[in-house]
Amino acid sequence: MSEENRLTDIIHQRIDSAGGSLPFAQFMQAALYEPGLGYYDTKTVFGEQGDFVTASELGPWLSLAMADLVFDAWQQMGEPKQWTLIEQGSGSGQQMAALLDILSQFSMHQAVAVISVEHCSQLRERQSQLFAERGLDVRLVPSLDEIDAAEHVIYYSNELPDAFPVSCFHYKNGNFFERSVAMQGNEFCWSDADEPMQQAPDIAPELIENWPDSYKSEWNPALNGWQKQLSRVIKSGFIFTVDYGYSHQEYYRQARVEGTLLAHIGQTATDEVLTLPGSSDITAHVDFSALVKAGSECDLRALLWMSQGGWLAQSPSVQSLIQSLAAQNDAVSMHLLAHAKRMLMPYGMGEVFKLLVQSKGIEARKPAYLNQFDHLDVL
Question: Full-prediction pTM beyond 0.85?
Answer without folding.
Answer: yes
